[in-house]
Model the fold of this input.
Amino acid sequence: ALVPIEKRYHSERNNLEQQLTLANRELAEAILADGRDSERVHAAIEKIHHHMGALQRVTIGHVFEMKEVLTPEQYQKLLNLTANALYNLDSGHAAD
Done:
């Protein structure tokens, strides 16, 4: 039952990761071309933030979508793993 959920998530995630890569390249090009803090640099940063937010929404939506096919115990374990991973994104500093 998880296979279609996983396939859809991986497809969406891959698409967003590609967009994020392109936005990072755009930022690099703006930095090199402008050589200073510029509108192009800020626009590229905003694009990166947009794609990062979209990736986070897709990932969290994926977690919540799995509730429909997991047992309550499995789902709670998934929520705990997700929360722990988020706490540890900053090398444990967020949990301090």
